[in-house]
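Quick question: what would this complex look like in 3D?
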Amino acid sequence: GQSLEQPSEVTAVEGAIVQINCTYQTSGFYGLSWYQQHDGGAPTFLSYNALDGLEETGRFSSFLSRSDSYGYLLLQELQMKDSASYFCAVREGTGGGNKLTFGTGTQLKVEL
Amino acid sequence: DAGVIQSPRHEVTEMGQEVTLRCKPISGHNSLFWYRQTMMRGLELLIYFNNNVPIDDSGMPEDRFSAKMPNASFSTLKIQPSEPRDSAVYFCASSFQGRGEQFFGPGTRLTVL
């Protein structure tokens, strides 16, 4: 089967940089996605890595190493509004890999 | 764009009652997903459709759960009979098939008493 591991909680101060790691075990791997979810809200897409390397989108970057079954989400210049849960999700499966399996989420707390 | 639309947003029902959750995906998207989220089990995929056809329903917990997608713009998730352990937030999401980005609806918060 598939499994993903990510830390349950991370705390950082405003303006800092934080890295949220994700390791996975799966078959039929297509790529790794990251989602953000604020309390009471829906998951929203942040980034997707299909190939090894770093993808940058504004203050957020995501990295993937397929050989290590590992990825991370890097958040820079942290703001209070970044306090949320962050999920890594593996895109996998047959027929084009349309299925996402989510990790248990990392709750990020940004403090002053 | 209206985004993914779900109804109702909140549902409170009694054990044994039938519950129907509704979803309208983003126009043009050809994949639709139903998820359930609880504190204990996290975000679980229940079932997904490609081009209105169910592809993977391995996450559907038991026969009390059923899902349909009669056309490209509408899907339902039905629970009959409902039980207290079904209490959760149910999300519908849509995407273009084969893309890593899924767009989630606001969710339906279901409480079964």
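Answer marked as accepted. The two ends of chain A are 41 Å apart (CA to CA).
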